[in-house]
Amino acid sequence: MRYRIRKKMFSLGEKFTIQDEDGKDHFFVEGKFFSFGDQLRVYDADGTEQAYIEQKLMSLRPRYRVYRDGELFAEVLKEFTWFKKKFTLDVPGPNDYTITGSFWDHEFVFERGGHVIAHVSKKIMSWTDSYCVDVVEGEDDVAILSSIIVIDMVCTDERSGAA
After folding, report:
1. Does pLDDT of 149 surpass 70?
2. What is the pLDDT of residues 88-104, one digit of tens each?
3. How far apart are CA 8 and CA 130, in angstroms?
4. With 0-12 CB in 10 A as exposed, 13-18 as middle and 19+ as buried, what is 110?
5. Using alpha carbons only, what angle is made at residue 102 by residues 41 and 36, rounded to the nearest 5 degrees?
6. CA angle, 65 as apex, 78 and 92 as ends, to 5°?
């Protein structure tokens, strides 16, 4: 499945629209304007909450928790590495995703079990951050899309000196 993530330029709090390859709105992401740490909700096109993302404060490195139906589903964390950036989408069991690539250029991949299951690339010549995301069929689209939102926020914070 191919998605396009677009960050809204002028909004209070973080807001993203996620469209499918036909340009149809598939998901919406809305963040709180005033909060301690980032808090976002992912809704489907019908307005049903699909995930809640919450930044874990008091952590040595950026860490976000992803909840589904009120239960902790996964954590997205920035790994400590010397030269390259690396993230992990830690899900229950042995099925963690490793996320590597050029985060400054917003070109990165999700891998699990040695196989690439999603590719993310930033769209050039856009007023706001805009990403093209290709996800292998049968993978957890909401978990992957939520992780991309987290990575965007972490990289934005690092560029602005907020992290």
Report:
1. yes
2. 999 988 889 999 988 77
3. 9
4. buried
5. 30
6. 90
Give the single-character DSSP code of 141. Answer: H
If DSSP codes are grouped into helix, strand and coil, which group holds residue 150? helix
Please give the mean pLDDT across all residues of the chain.
86
36-64 burial, b at 16+ Cβ within 10 Å, e below that, comes to: eebbbbbeeeeeeebbbbbbeeeeeebbb
Which range has the worst mean pLDDT, 82-86, 98-102, 116-120?
Answer: 82-86
Element (H, E) at 76: strand 71-78
Is 129 exposed, middle or buried, given 0-12, 13-18 or 19+ CB atoms closer than 10 A? middle
| Closest by CA position to 54, among listed 64, 62, 63 | 64
- Nearest Cα neighbor of 89 from 140, 38, 158 is 140
Closest CA to 113 of 133, 134, 96, 100: 96
Residue with tokens 């995703």: 97
**Cα separation values, 29 from 114, 129, 142, Å:** 30, 14, 11
* pLDDT at residue 161 is higher than 70: no
